[in-house]
## 1
Amino acid sequence: MSNTKDKKPLILVSNDDGITANGIRKLVDLMKQIGEVVVVAPDSPQSGMGHAITIGNTLRLFRERIFPEVEAYKCSGTPADCVKLGKHHVLKDRTIDLVVSGINHGANTSISVLYSGTMSAAIEGAIEGTPAIGFSLCDYDPEADFDHADEWILKITEQTLKRGLPKYTALNVNIPPKRIEKVKGVKVCRQANAKWEEVFDQRRDPTGKPYFWLGGNFVNFDKGEDNDEWAIANNYISVVPCQFDLTAHHAINYMNEEWEL
Amino acid sequence: MSNTKDKKPLILVSNDDGITANGIRKLVDLMKQIGEVVVVAPDSPQSGMGHAITIGNTLRLFRERIFPEVEAYKCSGTPADCVKLGKHHVLKDRTIDLVVSGINHGANTSISVLYSGTMSAAIEGAIEGTPAIGFSLCDYDPEADFDHADEWILKITEQTLKRGLPKYTALNVNIPPKRIEKVKGVKVCRQANAKWEEVFDQRRDPTGKPYFWLGGNFVNFDKGEDNDEWAIANNYISVVPCQFDLTAHHAINYMNEEWEL
């Protein structure tokens, strides 16, 4: 899967914060140093969309000229829709060498990978057999500083193009927030065992009817040092290779032994 | 995790086709034979929502009296939102013994598990440490006949309550469409290696602007006989135990060996 040709690799860029977010602008700037960039990204924020796709409704796709010298499109759909449209419509006669998504404004470590629109774009690339990376900065500030991540994002991208990834995998890359201490390096690791403990904030609208805000506290059950939460807490960049076979293979034997059907 | 008490198990029911779908009415009727049922389901169809949750927007939740003698609520959010609201608001002082979702009008085999709202409700249950099952009928007709599945849905549910599931797993159960030949039985299996090959149907709106319908052809790469596509094609009910650790564990060694970072 490595790119050995002389021509520049073709890189499809998407995200979930929307095409005007600072994070995607930074990612486009970095990818332009490596390859030919085409952007298909949501026309509005799509955080928390998980692996949603647009069924039973139509999609819009329009040219957008906000990135200098880069072919870009804004799409009314989800991040997964964007990659599908990029692959099967915008670039349908060409081979995409890499799908990258982000840089997300906020962490997508541990369980958050399931809810992440950023990672759904990357996993959609992996489903197509294309190497793919989702980048997230563990800082929710829309004005967060991404510069400390530049060299690492370039390195991880170049290694992905040079060394390839096992088929049907996408990388979930999380970058610690900018601190006084420099980032220590990269840890290839597993998804931490953690979850969100939901708290619903119930309020009343002006007519007296109830409504809710979803909120929650993050609870980390994982005592290991080989997971993404540990890496970020210790100022490493976490790289979790992800796949989309949800089968709990260990449970098949259990059920075939214990169940009576 | 088995229910050994005398009291009836508490079963939270959700779906992605919306609270008025035939599939959830059938599931509620079946679950009432086994336990105490509480329903929290979307107020409108949520097919293809994957593991989306509602961030940056509010949620509504209202009592709905369409199921005789059953406490039920319709929610403006996604299937994952419904289970979160069911667990942390509606039933927050009680222990849920089982989360069931469906019966979906349409298959959620192989790769479709990623896009499935039905399964996101079940997986949300698994994240909470509660045994969970998503049921889908491989028939997209809203008026499809579910009766041939009754005995199997009851059996699988009873076994789940009696034998339990390994922690953090949810069952993805797909039921063949009604045929002249009776269902042959149940196969515990893995998710097939298959994907959707997208085809976008481009049209023009009355003002001349383009829009798209997402469509696609299902492509099955899997030659095995231990997967859900094989089971359905051979008139078995497929049961795939699913988990939510997306780590491609096999890729970690590869990257630690081959990559230079």
## 2
Amino acid sequence: MIPTITAFESSPDRGQGLARDMRVRWALEEAGQPCDVRLVSFKAMKEPAHRALHPFGQIPTYEEGELVLFESGAIVFHIAQHHAGLLPQDANARARAIMWMFAALNTVEPPILELQTAKFTEGDKPWTGERLPLIKDRIRHRLGELAVRLGEADWLDGAFSAGDLMMVHTLQRLRPSGLLDEYPSLAAYVARGEARPAYKRAFAAQLAVFTGKPPAG
Amino acid sequence: MIPTITAFESSPDRGQGLARDMRVRWALEEAGQPCDVRLVSFKAMKEPAHRALHPFGQIPTYEEGELVLFESGAIVFHIAQHHAGLLPQDANARARAIMWMFAALNTVEPPILELQTAKFTEGDKPWTGERLPLIKDRIRHRLGELAVRLGEADWLDGAFSAGDLMMVHTLQRLRPSGLLDEYPSLAAYVARGEARPAYKRAFAAQLAVFTGKPPAG
């Protein structure tokens, strides 16, 4: 059964791949699984039909028969559990890969979300100029710790996993701020993720929504 | 094999149960599993020995033989996977329970963390008084959506699950702000969680660390 996911009809990042549907698209490409994509407008996302799928009125959602999921972390985990390529077989390594999914979403992403909120929701407030350096320092604190743990490894724990997928996509959101480039090993880590063929296919598919042109190839 | 978890030697919430070890303690009690608790000081949390377990220098951690985990979400998930009582057997219901774990940690908790950061990290800044209502409105937005989805149900999706455990604990952090009481159905949901015998045992165990007295009973 081919699942259906939802994505922005009009991507606020203009096809940079920063919306959370990219995580699901990438996971499906790593797993070699096709999907149908239904595009939703900002208006439709907040209406009852979409909220029946996603109580917080966001994208992505995932529909597969009677199963309806929201939350990119949960969707990627579901895909990873049912297809090879995203979670190791060894039980302990698998638990650690799942741990990195949670770490990306609950330890690394919150200060990054705070930076986005400051820019987009409080961008017109008189305090934002003074606050941004404080938020950036909180992000640097986490990035420094992450860089120490990554060390010279290619991925966070052995082979590429769903944990890396979530972490790479979380870190990508920092690129416009310049913060990622302050940590060359993390910038290289993100670049390794972006170099994966599955990533490239997923990126092209989400970009095509914005450009209106089908992906090349 | 009895796992070892870590918790604050000196709890910043003075035993209110808001630290993240409470999630792990509660999950272990729901699963009927004992654990050893190693207390760590704020200083020791940032030293290499603890960072080898937790790269972000926090609690809780979970050690079970050769497996070392951090991130409360990952630890609770690991416990839930290996013991009955926290995840349904039906595959779709199980995927949805895991979805609610991610929703608690990545959709509901981030604005709550922002409120804590504003109070404790930026509490002395001139803008914080004006910012707090903005942050509270962002939290209200999420709480309103969550209350609609919960409706008149006892738990988020059928029987109590690890998803409820994470959501209840996430919402508890709002109690000092008074925001939770603005949503009576969510306050009642949290109270249902707190009424569970497993919760009470876990709460007493973490309180005993603060009071220095062993839990009664």
